[in-house]
Amino acid sequence: MLHFFRHRAPAQLCAFVAFSVCCVFALCCSGRAEAQAAKRPNIVFILADDLGYGELGSYGQQKIMTPNLDKLASEGMRFLDHYTGAPVCAPARCTLMTGQHLGHAEIRSNKDSGNGRIYPGQWPITEQVVTIAEVLNEAGYATGGFGKWGLGPSNTTGSPNKQGFDRFYGYNCQRNAHSYYPPFLDSDEREVAVNKYPIPGHDRKPQGPVSADDYRAANYAPDLILNQAVRFLDSNKDKPFFLYLPFVEPHVAMQPPQEWIDRYPEAWDKENGPYRGDNGYLPHPRPRAAYAAMISDLDEHVGTILDRLEQHGLSDNTIVIFTSDNGPTHGGRNPNFHIGGAACTFFESAGGLKGFKGSCDEGGIRVPCIVRWPGKVTPGSENSFPSYFPDWFPTMTELAGAELPEQQLDGVSLVSLIEGESIQRKKPLIWNFNGYGGQVAIRDGKWKAIRKSLLRKTPGPWQLYDLEADPSEANDLAKDHPEIVKRLETAFVNDRSVESDFPMPLYDKQ
To answer: EC annotation (predicted)?
Structure first.
């Protein structure tokens, strides 16, 4: 090489050296970039449906078997004060996908699209909003969603394939998800038939014997969804991926595999007998055992995903996040059962908290949350920092080394918290919920203010709770601290926008 240099003119030599240096520098930079990309963690986000704060063994459950999730908690961090973004399905998913709380989110309650179909899909998010899937996809992540979507029908702006997902398989429409043996599932933009003789999600049997087999068909949707999720994981094991798993269990109707039902005591269901469908959804001969079976089946599916990560050697470079979209199923007309026959009182599903799904009380919005990230998260650790769904957008963006979009974001990154450091929040947690009569809640530090019936003729009064001293919200302190109520209400009014599709007249005028 030196001999080659000697026979070059000085100018040519300088140019060649400069070119060579640039090439070496470019190769080094490229190598570093590839190394950094390789270090970016895979992200697996598992979202249970209507799983209560107290329904996992790691959160105090004594009757229901959840060995895989309990193991996940022992290997990771439990969040003790984690909240969904909304107390029902679609708006909770909207806050998760967009990083916006209910005062800014486009979807603020469950609402069908109005397209006239039997399974219409829900009100679509628009093309203006940026989802976390779009951010991660732009950053080079393969993106797959498997489970229940609820943010817009196929071939609309809200379709998962138009919101950043390379692959989607499951229930686009929440109404189709009322049965675990549906006529079809959605595969990207297509409906794919899965049961020739599907089971409708609602029926009653006022008299006579009740048989679980009467409400089963050939293909069980949760297994089909799990299989597609595993295929996605297998296909993308050599590149960074975002695997979003909004599983459907334990949302009613209760149609779990018999093998799980048989593992629970028959004595449980002798007290109230069979559920006959009078609180909606489907009858079941052993409702308590069936409800526990749904959660155990969910746990088994989580275990399948974790095992697959281990088989591919991906566990150490994958952050797994598990939580629930809202609290457990609320009560109905028959006081012996919750909606769909769910046994949430028997299992103390809300973990001693007040309220259930559909309520901004703690039982409706505080949810279990577990994060495992080997080498980053201290095994068996826990934290009490108040966090919620809008936080996951900046968290996952930071994990991926991506850039935040230029849109309203209401959360804070939890990466430092997950790694064992303390973090601060600049503004309160906010819920502006248009369902169940209209509700508002604000949490700032230990204080939580809540107001209900805002869409009714006579709105309810403000309530105020010190959650550090009174997590079950038994002692209303609103009259003792009107100045705190006023401060929290002002914070709410100043941090919300009007959404014409989900009006709240009392505050839209301010």
So the answer is: 3.1.6.1
The answer to whether residues 150 and 122 touch, using CB atoms and an 8 Å cutoff, is yes
From residue 498, give the alpha-carbon distance in Å to each of 112, 397, 410.
20, 27, 16
Chain centroid, CA 343 distance in Å: 22
Closest CA to 73 of 381, 492, 362: 381
Distance CA 394, CA 397 (A): 5
Considering only CA atoms, which of 30, 143, 103, 53 is closest in space to residue 357? Answer: 53
Question: Is residue 327 within 8 Å of 85, Cβ to Cβ?
Answer: no
Nearest Cα neighbor of 411 from 69, 110, 105 is: 105
- pLDDT one-digit tens code per residue, 241-269: 999 999 999 999 999 999 999 999 999 99
- What would the two tokens of residue 456 be? 């009714």
Contact 135, 409 (CB under 8 A): no
**d(Cα 144, Cα 161) in Å, to the nearest integer?**
9
Look at phi and psi of residue 91 and say left if phi exceeds 0, alpha if psi is from -120 to 50, else beta: alpha
Q: How many CA atoms lie within 13 A of 47 on its CB side?
A: 28
Token pair listed for 271: 């007290």
Question: How big is the CA angle at 175 (ends 173 and 177), to the nearest 5 degrees?
Answer: 80
Q: Same domain for 438 and 339?
A: no
pLDDT tens digits along 41-74: 999 999 999 999 999 999 999 999 999 999 999 9
Give the per-residue pLDDT at 16: 46
Domain boundary among 373, 404, 427: 427
* 38: its two tokens: 């390789």
Q: Where are the beta strands (DSSP E) in 197-299?
A: 241-245
- If one counts every other C-beta atom within 10 angstroms of the C-beta of residue 79, the result is 26
Which residue numbers in the chain have pLDDT < 70? 1-38
This prediction's pTM: 0.93
Asked whether the beta carbons of 229 and 144 are under 8 A apart, the reply is: yes
Sole residue written with tokens 């100045």: 483
8: which 2 tokens?
Answer: 């070059």
Which residues are within 8 A (CB) of 394 and not within 5 positions of it... i.e. 6 or more apart? 99, 404, 409, 411, 412, 413
Same domain, 452 and 495: yes
| pLDDT at residue number 444 | 99
Q: Is residue 8 part of a domain?
A: no
pLDDT at 38 (0 to 100): 53
* Structural domain count, the chain: 2
Task: Write a three-state SS string for 48-82.
Answer: ECCCCCCCCHHHCCCCCCCHHHHHHHHHCEEECCE
* Rounded Cα–Cα distance for residues 242 and 213 (Å): 37
Give the span between the Cα atoms of 90 and 104, in whole angstroms: 14
CA distances from 414 to 223, 371, 411 (A): 32, 11, 9
Q: Domain ends where: 406, 427, 448?
A: 427
Q: Looking at the chain, how many residues does it have?
A: 510
Q: Are residues 353 and 226 in the same domain?
A: yes
